[in-house]
Amino acid sequence: MNKERLSKVLLSPVISEKAARGAETASQYAFRVTPDATKREIAGAVEMMFDVAVDQVQVLNVKGKVKRFGRLYGKRKDWRKAYVRLMPGQEIDFGGA
């Protein structure tokens, strides 16, 4: 796979209570990814960027919420989320400390 493409697949980690609980219990991390990313591309990008072994990737599309701005209605963008499970003994440290 193209390294330039893999470097653009992951947009950001998802930091939430649910994601933290998954990281602690199942060695599973959540990432915001590009809308056209495939499971193989996501696995390759995580392996390349964090130097870990990926076991499984689950991908889901998150629908944007409808919000009101006074009288007007607006909609947030739809986005794609990936849950990446690592092989046993692997870990990603986002803190950098």
- Outline the low-pLDDT stretches: none
The CATH topology corresponds to Alpha-Beta Plaits
Estimate what percentage of residues fall within beta strands.
35-45%
Structural class: alpha+beta
Shape: globular
Helix content: 25-40%
CATH architecture: 2-Layer Sandwich
What is the end-to-end distance? 31 Å
Largest sheet: 4 strands, antiparallel
Total of helices: 3
Strand order of the largest sheet: 1-2-6-3
Which value, in Å, is the CA radius of gyration?
A: 15 Å
Number of domains: 1
**Top CATH class:** Alpha Beta
Order of helices and strands: HEHEHEEEE
Residue-averaged pLDDT, rounded? Answer: 93
Report the CATH superfamily: RRM (RNA recognition motif) domain
- Total strand segments: 6
Organism: Thioflavicoccus mobilis 8321
Pfam families: Ribosomal_L23 (PF00276)
Subunit structure: Part of the 50S ribosomal subunit. Contacts protein L29, and trigger factor when it is bound to the ribosome.
Keywords: Ribonucleoprotein, Ribosomal protein, RNA-binding, rRNA-binding
Structure characteristics:
97 residues, alpha+beta, Alpha-Beta Plaits, four-stranded antiparallel β-sheet, 3 helices, 6 strands, 36% strand, globular, rRNA binding
3D architecture notes:
GO terms for molecular function: rRNA binding; structural constituent of ribosome. One of the early assembly proteins it binds 23S rRNA. One of the proteins that surrounds the polypeptide exit tunnel on the outside of the ribosome. Forms the main docking site for trigger factor binding to the ribosome. Pfam families: Ribosomal_L23 (PF00276). Keywords: Ribonucleoprotein, Ribosomal protein, RNA-binding, rRNA-binding. The protein contains three helices and six strands, in the order αβαβαββββ. It is of the alpha+beta class and 97 residues long. It has a four-stranded antiparallel beta sheet. The chain has a two-stranded antiparallel ribbon with strand order 4-5. The protein is globular and about 50 Å long. The termini are far apart. The model has no long low-confidence stretch (mean pLDDT 93).
